[in-house]
Amino acid sequence: MKKELIKPKDSKKSANKLRKWSRIIHRDLSFFFSGIILVYAFSGIFLNHKADFNSNYSIKQHLFVVEGNYPLKSSDFNAERVKKELLNQYQESANYTKHYFPDSLTMKVFLKGGSSMVVDMKTGNGIYESIKKRPLISGLNRLHYNPNRWWTAFSDLFAISLIIITLTGIIMNKGKKGIMGRGGIELIIGIIIPLLFIFLT
After folding, report:
1. Are residues 92 and 117 in the same domain?
2. pLDDT at site 183
3. Three-state secondary structure of the chain
4. Do residues 71 and 102 share a domain?
5. Measured distance between the N- and C-terminal CA atoms of the chain, rounded to whole angstroms
6. 120 and 28, same structural domain?
7. 165: Cβ–Cβ under 8 A, 6 or more apart, which residues?
8. 12, 37, 16, 13: which is closest to 171 by C-alpha?
9. 53-64 pLDDT tens trace
10. 199 lies in some domain
11. 177 CB contacts (<8 Å, ≥6 apart)?
12. Count of domains observed in the chain
């Protein structure tokens, strides 16, 4: 039985066909997943710098003074007075949950969503801490943590597609710009950098 030899022209034709399909797959998957690539890229930057910037919440503090005879009496502050005199100025009356006195000189007010107030009963000085969720950025971060099984399944598909995008990107170029030239050098450097961080940090 004779073995058929692969002719150089056939080999070249097969390689060209492989590169052609690599370009098609690479292009279509890149367009399809470009949105999620941007989501993970931006949320990754936000999460990398969470010590410098709270991307989930906007936190602000406001100082105010409660008028009255000092020291203020805890018995004079029921829920209605707290809402009217303290919370109305910040449009937070509807978010009131409770207030209490951990000691005779301090009043704490708790609000829905995490905001709060602390009043020094001796001086009337108070601090209102506003905690507001950043709607868009916090949503992007939430997707980064795989919030449910459907998103986990989609993320797995995305991860597999990234592998395919990478492999087709390696294959589709030839010559000096491909894996046997400059592309190969860049590939090796790209592999070495994370390895250095793993073993040297």
Report:
1. yes
2. 86
3. CCCCCCCHHHHHHHHHHHHHHHHHHHHHHHHHCHHHHHHHHHHHHHHHCCCCCCCCEEEEEEEEECCCCCCCCHHHCCHHHHHHHHHHHHCCHHHEEEEEEEECCEEEEEEHHHCEEEEECCCCEEEEEEEEECHHHHHHHHHHCCCCHHHHHHHHHHHHHHHHHHHHHHHCCCHHHCCCCHHHHHHHHHHHHHHHHHHHC
4. yes
5. 60
6. no
7. 25, 26, 29, 30, 33
8. 16
9. 899 999 999 999
10. no
11. 183
12. 2
Cβ-contact 119, 66 below 8 angstroms: yes
Q: Are residues 71 and 165 in the same domain?
A: no
| Residues forming a β-bridge with 80 | none
- Counting as low any pLDDT under 50, the low residues of the chain are none
**Domain match, 76 and 114 both:** yes
CA 170 to chain centre: 29
Per-residue confidence (pLDDT) for residue 5, from 0 to 100: 53
Q: What is the pLDDT of residue 146?
A: 79
Instruction: For 91, list phi and psi in degrees, rounded to 5.
Output: 55, 45
Residues 6 or more apart in contact with residue 170 via CB below 8 angstroms: 178, 179, 183, 187
Cβ pair 81, 117 in contact under 8 A? no
- Looking at residue 70, what is its pLDDT? 93
Range of the domain at 68: 57-133
Residue type, 3: K
Reported pTM: 0.68
Nearest to 172, CA basis, from 30, 10, 8: 30
